[in-house]
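Deliverable D2.4 — example input (structure tokens):
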């Protein structure tokens, strides 16, 4: 960021050192950054897999190479590869691993952006319209390094029995690098602030509202899942006892469960929206009705409501999304409110619609096949969740925008009377 400021007439040693730090070689640095971003989370998965191998049977069965292959497959599944386990296709994505990879991409992207921020024209030249290829080149090289690492991992870890999809790994890697790494590099290099200044205020406000509504909604969904799990923790403990797990097995099962906690939060969100989710073909879990069949022995499923009729208060949970949209939109507009009714309403409504689309995309990747037979259909009802999210968050955002506009007009009128 500092490298984009106009240079001073006198350059100190600190200025020279800062300039050198932000003008590091663009192409190789971004390429290595992508490799490190992919390898950092891959190493974590490999390490956890090896530790789990020792915890389960002290290395009595299998080999270190087999444990490493399992860790690599877990990392690939976090990138949407899917796999075949004992002949059964598993397509569900453990979003905990995906989030870990996204965090690494974000952090490394920011560092790469800061290290190459001195390349290209300065801030004044960029504002004047001079072409700046620093961020596009850095993003393309960063993505190339990440994809190469992912493809190499898929090549080395794949076997005819597991058969992970390399094409899906490439697609998810591209989405991570372009959707998360790209903005991170732009922010780290200081270009994002310059570009954002040229956007219409409505666009910036709507984007801010979308972020706030999603933050509040995911927090509400996480709290709902936690409460449901804690209230029926005895069932989870009973499942663990039926599995006859020792300390090592229990630790490994807990780690595996943590990998799918984000999936559970997305399921909780679709439940609160109304459409709900399935836990196998022919099942349905919604605030209005719960129809469950035989379930696998997995402790996190203890958070599911009881089969049969639901309590009379649960259908009222569908009011939560509208309330969250209202709170999120009002929170986003509290610092820069507007006194224009149309602008305040549009800010909130557009932000809510964007948040609904964002959550719909999350719901779309939170399910998939997790086993044979009935368990090939597990996860949120994606399209219904998308429609409900857009509608509820849009209405809530509209109301939140109107509330903040009313508050701003009232505050302005009071200030005018005091001045008079």
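Example output (designed residues):
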């Amino acid at each position: 960021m500092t490298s984009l400021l106009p240079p001073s007439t006198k350059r100190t040693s600190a200025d020279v050192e800062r300039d050198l730090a932000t003008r590091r070689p663009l192409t190789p640095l971004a390429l290595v950054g992508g490799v490190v971003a992919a390898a950092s989370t891959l190493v974590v998965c490999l390490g956890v897999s090896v530790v789990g191998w020792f915890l389960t049977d002290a290395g009595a069965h299998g080999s270190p190479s087999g444990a490493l292959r399992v860790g690599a497959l877990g990392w690939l599944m976090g990138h949407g590869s899917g796999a075949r386990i004992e002949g059964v296709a598993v397509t569900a994505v453990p979003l905990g691993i995906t989030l870990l990879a996204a965090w690494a991409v974000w952090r490394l992207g920011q560092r790469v952006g800061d290290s190459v921020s001195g390349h290209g024209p300065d801030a004044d030249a960029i504002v004047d319209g001079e072409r700046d290829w620093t961020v596009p080149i850095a993003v393309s090289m960063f993505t190339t390094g990440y994809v190469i690492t992912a493809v190499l991992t898929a090549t080395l870890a794949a076997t005819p029995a597991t058969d992970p999809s390399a094409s899906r790994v490439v697609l998810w890697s591209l989405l991570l690098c372009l959707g998360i790494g790209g903005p991170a590099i732009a922010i780290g290099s200081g270009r994002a602030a310059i570009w954002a200044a040229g956007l219409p205020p409505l666009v910036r406000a709507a984007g801010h509202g979308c972020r706030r509504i999603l933050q509040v909604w995911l927090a509400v969904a996480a709290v709902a899942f936690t409460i449901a799990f804690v209230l029926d923790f005895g069932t989870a403990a009973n499942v663990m006892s039926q599995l006859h797990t020792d300390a090592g097995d229990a630790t490994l099962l807990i780690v595996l469960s943590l990998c799918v906690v984000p999936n559970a939060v997305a399921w909780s969100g679709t439940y609160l929206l109304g459409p709900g989710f399935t836990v196998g073909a022919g099942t349905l879990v919604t605030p209005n009705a719960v129809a469950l069949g035989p379930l696998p022995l997995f402790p996190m499923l203890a958070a599911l409501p009881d089969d049969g009729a639901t309590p009379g208060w649960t259908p009222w949970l569908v009011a939560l999304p509208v309330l969250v949209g209202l709170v999120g939109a009002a929170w986003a507009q509290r610092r820069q409110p507007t006194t224009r009714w149309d602008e305040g309403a549009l800010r909130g409504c557009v932000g809510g619609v964007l948040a609904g689309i964002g959550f719909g995309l999350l719901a779309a990747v939170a399910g998939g096949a997790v086993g044979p037979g009935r368990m090939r259909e597990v996860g949120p009802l994606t399209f219904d969740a998308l429609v409900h999210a857009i509608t509820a968050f849009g209405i809530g955002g509209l109301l939140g925008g109107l509330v903040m506009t009313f508050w701003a007009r009232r505050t302005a009128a009071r200030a005018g009377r005091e001045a008079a």
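Confidence is low (pLDDT under 50) at residues 5-9.
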